[in-house]
Amino acid sequence: MLQQPPSEPLSQDVSPTLNPSGKTAPLQEVFSSIQGEALYVGKRQVFVRFAHCHLKCAYCDTPMTSATGQCHVEDPPGSGLEHLYPNPMRPQTLLEIIGSLLKTAKHHSVSFTGGEPLLYHGFLKELLPQVQKLAPTYLETSGTQPEFLQTVLPWLDFIAMDIKLPSATKEAPQFEQHARFYQMSLNNPNTQCFIKLVFNTQTTLAELDAVKAIVTDRNTPIILQPETSLIDRSVSIQPKHLFDIENHLAGHFNDVRIIPQTHKMLNVL
Ligand code: SF4
User: Fold this and answer.
1) Does domain 17-195 have CATH number 1.20.210.10?
2) Model-level pTM?
């Protein structure tokens, strides 16, 4: 069990994206659960969810434009019991929370997710070397900020990198940033990088050709994630389109998988 959170007044006004290299960070929640997406789906992880993101993907299920003054920590896992910690949080406080949750079960790794965790690369640079002494580190990222990745790459064991398809995000393409980010991830041989593509009925083969140009190592795993409805959590992609998309990439890459979001089926955090 966690000790009682500190009793200092909770911050009401948190604007941490203005100070991305700072040594504190605003967090939404910290909890232990099952990875619901991509290559390590089904693995037990401790999740650290950061607030804020610089993008606005149309399918986003964690649209956090502002951080609240509190970080929610569920302990024991699955109990629904929440402890509230003041934001922004210091690395040492988060390290103690992670350490406590890791003791509750066998975990594959600690997932840093969001929002966009790399907005807080200064905070992560201080934290990750300490976390790596406890468990492998796993970054879930939009894959668009190579200059921030460079700061923390030596302490990352896994990178779940998105390549944002405009048909799904309804935003401008980020392919150039993705290419630089991907090439940088290859610089650390101890880091496994894999790609996650959220796609929908509007996704085109030309977008997938752009992915082929970005991901130069054909052994990099490619995970196709059908877009999930924000209204009823359904997936509305027809089998023919599903197979066409898969087939277009499977002829090029050695490990292509279609994996929908599963944590929403399990009704877990
Ligand atoms: S990058 Fe992730 S957190 Fe940011 S808007 Fe897109 S889906 Fe949401």
Assistant:
1) no
2) 0.90
